């Protein structure tokens, strides 16, 4: 479960950073990646649904705790991302026209899209920072530790094959 969460979170972060630069991907890829990102975020929320319900139910029971701050940031992130996606779809130059739907050219929606996208970027950074200990722990467990174990195993095998090479001359 943790490994799947780590891989999904890594994919979400990389995709989000790519989307934040439409000049890097081009507008069509920007829009289609955003739709894929939305589906992946829904999966992310479903995987964390028990935590969302548990913290939401106990939100007002204590004066302050770390989970409450994370919950508030996550709710703000959800609202900002939802506004970004909604406004992005409304001003779409690729996805909606491909589906035969006329999009709007309203500067209001364009401005809202830019504002909420930048707010989302800030909140993603804060979300990442608040979950940093988990990220580091999972990275150690699933990336660094296997590499270290593989190195130690290969070193032990080399010493076993040639014991003289491990003793100083």
From TrEMBL:
Tagged with keyword Transport: no
InterPro entries (UniProt xref): DUF4405
Domain Flavinylation-associated cytochrome intervals: 72-132
N-terminal signal peptide: none
Pfam families assigned to the protein according to its UniProt record, in alphabetical order: DUF4405 (PF14358)
Superkingdom, natural source: Bacteria
TM spans (from-to): 7-26, 32-51, 71-95, 115-139
Keywords from the named record: Membrane, Transmembrane, Transmembrane helix
Name of protein: Flavinylation-associated cytochrome domain-containing protein
Record organism: Thermanaerothrix daxensis
Organism classification: Bacteria, Bacillati, Chloroflexota, Anaerolineae, Anaerolineales
